[in-house]
Amino acid sequence: LGGGAITTEKVISSNIASRVEEQLPSASGISASIPFFDLPSNINSDSIKSVRININEYKLKGSGTKSSLAIFAKNISKSKPTQIGSLDITTTIPVFKLLEESGFNDAEIIDNALQISVGAGGVGKALLVPEYSNGQIYFQIKSVSVMGSPIPASSLPADIQDQIKSRSAKDFTVPQGLKVKSVSISSKGLSINFQGNDVQLDGLASSL
User: Fold this and answer.
1) Among residues 136, 140, 141, 138, which one has the least CA distance to residue 126?
2) Euclidean distance between CA atoms 46 and 67, whole angstroms
3) 3-class DSSP state for residue 123?
4) What pLDDT, on the 0 to 100 scale, is given for residue 1?
5) 182/136 Cα distance (integer angstroms)
6) What is the pLDDT of residues 109-129, one digit of tens each?
7) How far apart are CA 169 and CA 163, in angstroms?
8) Sheet holding 28-33, edge to edge
């Protein structure tokens, strides 16, 4: 029974991965997995309870940037057109690409933020965090230190934040049916999390 369950799980996961590959032909390194305890329901019902899909590399249509995708979907209809009850996608742009496109020559990732040099001779350090608004991803100052002495970001002139934003802003197209829930930086790169309900797979694929 255990071996049969494993085989069934592999077949269902393989079919899901194949469906994703059909919809996202430029994606590479696709893998899918479903919980074992969902197998009876997945076999006997007209939908898949939940699935996790990982894509090692995919070029986002909005920006053309290669990134990885981590997808968690629930209540996926087996029939076409495929309807997804709830969808959570995190796309991560690699560190080297993030630093290359940040607009700051000496940027590096420190404490889940982008650190840049500021001031004459680069004696100051500023930590920047990503934000998303009105179709753009950009950076804002979280904190500044000069020769090791911290300066609250709230005490900085407002136009400095505007300068940082205008210098770093990049247009970003949100996939159809989804909304941006968070933007963050880690050692892996820049991660954007989207979420949505009652998403049509065909529409999503055409805009992702």
Assistant:
1) 141
2) 32
3) coil
4) 44
5) 13
6) 998 999 988 877 777 888 999
7) 10
8) 28-33, 47-59, 66-77, 83-94, 189-200, 179-186
